[in-house]
Design a protein that fits this description.
By secondary structure, this protein is an all-alpha fold. The protein has one domain (13-209): Up-down Bundle (Four Helix Bundle (Hemerythrin (Met), subunit A)), CATH 1.20.120. Helix content is 71%, strand content 0%. The protein has eight helices and no strands. The chain starts with 14 loop residues before the first helix and ends with a helix.
């Protein structure tokens, strides 16, 4: 029988799971000052970026069983897609971003591109059947995978911190992953990608709506 999320034993795919995912993602956005807005177009692009950040942190949690591993593998390209949409959004709608990149770019822009490149390489390598030819053992592969993921997270953290608009100050950026790590460890175990996607989409919409004049 083909594998699918609803067929996983013990998998929860009900309204409570959706509600929990939504509440958690709202908490992720809670430390970000509501009064900071640059218009709904800019706010929507930023919200997509914070949604991608939440997905990256979620992917960093250890996979201690088959269900968590399958979800990790399934979500990886979707997290990458969110990062790409976030980047393309600003390249399309914001002439200042395009101007900065053409003229050398600010630190946070190059950090974003570096993080995106590392993440894309990380996911591509992990999904290639030939990956184990590059490493003597599975432990070596996991170690390299983990260190590359940490580099991607560090680049994204620099991007968020040095952009300096929605998140101003090192203390505030630390709150975002800490909220995730503190609250989701046991509770996310049974959530499906559809629940995570619905919660993230709703939180993104709330991020934009609560900044409208």
């Amino acid at each position: 029988m083909a594998w699918s999320w609803p067929n996983i034993p013990g998998h929860k795919n009900d309204g409570r799971a959706v509600a929990f995912g939504l509440a958690l993602l709202i908490l992720v956005f809670a430390p970000i000052p509501i009064h900071r807005s640059a218009g709904w177009v800019w706010d929507l692009g930023a919200a997509l970026g914070f949604w991608a950040l939440a997905g990256l942190v979620l992917q960093m949690l250890p996979c201690r069983d088959g269900i968590a591993f399958q979800r990790h593998r399934f979500l990886a390209p979707w997290v990458l897609a969110l990062c790409l949409v976030h980047a393309l959004w600003f390249l399309i709608v914001d002439p200042i971003t395009r101007f900065d990149l053409r003229n050398g770019g600010a630190v946070h822009l190059w950090a974003a591109l570096a993080g995106l490149a590392v993440l894309a390489g990380l996911i591509l390598q992990a999904r290639l059947p030939e990956r184990f030819r590059l490493y003597p053992t599975y432990r070596a592969f996991r170690s390299a995978h983990r260190h590359a993921a940490l580099c991607a997270i560090a680049a994204v953290a620099i991007h968020v911190l040095f952009s300096g608009y929605y998140v101003a100050g090192a203390g505030l950026i630390a709150v975002l992953p800490l909220i995730l790590v503190a609250l989701l460890r046991p509770a996310w175990a049974g959530l499906s990608p559809s629940c995570l996607g619905l919660g993230g989409a709703a939180a993104t919409l709330i991020f934009v709506l609560m900044r409208l004049p």
